[in-house]
TrEMBL record:
The keyword Cytoplasm applies. Its EC number is 2.1.1.77. The keyword Flavoprotein does not apply. PANTHER family: PROTEIN-L-ISOASPARTATE O-METHYLTRANSFERASE, PROTEIN-L-ISOASPARTATE(D-ASPARTATE) O-METHYLTRANSFERASE. Keywords: Cytoplasm, Methyltransferase, S-adenosyl-L-methionine, Transferase. It is found in: Cytoplasm. Its main location: cytoplasm. Belongs to the methyltransferase superfamily. L-isoaspartyl/D-aspartyl protein methyltransferase family. This is Protein-L-isoaspartate O-methyltransferase.
Length: 368
């Protein structure tokens, strides 16, 4: 595979804003780095194959303060290159991008479709749209930049040959399929609340359905409407939790967390269940499951030398029971990872996941 630098003909230094944000372990939040004050630090970030945080808290936190939530970023160059390759936009194509951010990917799309093609890019945040439009204009590109909720697609420019999302979704919005020309394709990061996520390429068919395979694991910020929230029950509430134990092993826990082999499939089986992990010390990792909507919470304390591990559960949903049941089901299917998973969206927008390998096929409807 060619190095990403050779696959990306536009440098991102023309698009990354002069103030960016970095993780700050001291506060647990994000602090600003200004190009004017520290050009070498800014430049190092721009040249690295890493995502750069370009906005926090929907722009409400000013530089110099501590931000709490990442709300826009310029994605890692190698991921951008992989997504563009998966999209396979060609000269003359009409392309819709959801999540303009800095405008860098829109410039790369303009390069791919050339003068005979067209790029429409939709961003939910008006301040980002204004900055991206200016950066694109300054770099000599003229895509149509729109402030709107991209989960609705952008009907005035439809039909599109290609649709690409640079923010992740729990389900492919029907508008994206409806606005893609039959024979066209959609590329999007697809993730559940539990697991963030895989790179999905869907091919749109003549009857309005779409089918595609999951690619590599990728972590992306969510579209605004799919943001995940966690709950921290008070010590008093935690003291009232039902307490049991789990005999699942350390290996099972690795499969179930982060980008473990079970995590993506389990996340599809247990909707609205946000997983977080905290290393309390070298010998104690806590896994928590949260469903803010129903007020349900679970915690599993993985303490070295103590097994079976203690499980606490609160609220109407027994989230750990749901996850361990999904894990047992996943084991029964032959421990197939997302590389064996196909997504089909039928003409009514219902999503079907299919796991298949060696003659074994299991399909189920994905709830969101
Ligand atoms: C990872 S960033 C995009 C990076 C961008 N493509 C670039 O080249 O810099 C994701 C963007 O999606 C935007 N976003 C989130 N929800 C959205 C929505 N519903 N419609 C349009 N944009 C959305 C965010 O504001 C954020 O700017």
């Amino acid at each position: 595979m060619t190095h990403w630098r050779e696959r990306l003909p536009v440098s991102r230094d023309q698009f990354v804003p002069p103030v960016v944000w970095v993780d700050d372990p001291a506060t647990g939040g994000y602090v600003s780095v200004s190009r004017e004050d520290d050009e070498p630090a800014w430049r190092k970030m721009v040249d690295a194959d890493e995502a750069i945080i370009t906005q926090v808290d929907d722009g409400k936190t000013p530089p110099g303060s501590v931000g709490q939530q990442i709300s826009s970023s310029c994605s890692a160059p190698s991921i951008v290159a992989d997504m563009l390759d998966a999209l396979d936009a060609r000269p003359g194509h009409a392309v819709l991008e959801i999540g303009t951010g800095t405008g860098w990917n829109a410039a790369l799309l303009c390069e791919r479709v050339g003068e005979t093609g067209s790029v429409t890019t939709v961003e939910v945040d008006a301040a980002l749209t204004t900055a991206a439009r200016a950066a694109l204009h300054g770099a000599g590109y003229g895509p149509h930049v729109v402030t709107a909720d991209g989960t609705e697609g952008y009907r005035p420019g439809a039909p599109y040959d290609r649709v690409i999302a640079t923010a992740s979704v729990r389900a492919i919005p029907r508008a994206w399929i409806a606005q893609t020309r039959p024979g066209g394709a959609i590329v999007a990061p697809w993730g559940s609340d539990y697991c963030n996520g895989t790179l999905l390429r869907l091919d749109v068919r003549h009857n309005g359905s779409a089918v595609g395979r999951c690619g590599a694991h990728i972590g992306f910020m969510r579209v605004r409407s799919a943001r995940r929230y966690y709950m921290n029950p008070s010590a008093d509430e935690q003291a009232t939790a039902d307490t049991t134990t789990t005999t699942l092993t350390a290996r099972d826990m690795m499969d179930l967390t982060e980008y473990g082999r079970a995590a993506f499939v389990v996340g599809l089986r247990v909707p609205r269940c946000y997983l977080t992990m905290d290393d309390l010390d070298d010998d104690h990792r806590r896994i928590e499951l949260h469903d803010v909507e129903s007020g349900s919470w679970a915690a599993v304390d993985l303490v070295r030398g103590e097994h079976p591990w203690t499980v606490r559960q609160l609220g109407p949903r027994r989230l750990w029971d749901e996850v361990s049941e999904a894990h047992a089901w996943w084991v029964s299917t032959g421990r197939l990872g997302p590389d064996h998973l196909t997504l089909t969206v039928d003409p009514d927008g219902i999503q079907w996941a299919t796991l298949s390998a060696g003659g074994l096929t299991t399909a189920w409807q994905v709830a969101v």
